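Dear colleagues,

As part of the handover before I leave the project, I'm documenting each prediction I ran so the next person doesn't have to rerun anything. This entry is a single chain, and its sequence is reproduced below.
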Amino acid sequence: MGYEIASEAASRGHDVVMVCGPVGLPEPHGVQVIHVVSAEEMFEVVLSLFDSCRAAIMTAAVCDYRPTRRLDHKLRKQNRVRTIHLQPTPDICAHLGRIKGDRVLIGFAMEDQDHRARAEEKLRRKRCDAIVLNGLGNVGGDSAEIEVFRAGTGWGDPISGSKAELASVVVDLVEKLTSND
């Protein structure tokens, strides 16, 4: 979805920088792509770019947790239970929400329970201007269904279509929100 949104925004003449982890998709035409490996690296890159943008669209979350310790060698198999300790990674969208000022911040929510309530809570907690509720069934396919919740106006009707069609809807939303500048 992020690639489709970046491609759509670039095709409309917007200056687009996409920060993404390892993925096997061709880079969208006209988009500057910055590849990162870790959540911490993504946080640093996004933060360095945020001051120079008018809008940020956070289409996918990085891993919420990482191991507290990383080995520099292979962990040999032993016939016993192992415990892995995890620590939270930075919440990039929430951090941007705290420092966004008049910039537009669009979040995405993929929820498996209490979809709308959790998406609304995420919008408030992360201080987004809108949140796109993205169903679990949308992963990996070309078609999808989304719902958009905007601060102040509430839920729109569910929208179904190809990811390219839905990307157009999201870019329309960002253009509308940034035109209020």
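Residues 2-65+85-178 form a domain with the Rossmann fold fold (CATH 3.40.50.10300). The chain has one domain: 2-65+85-178.

All the best with the project,
I.
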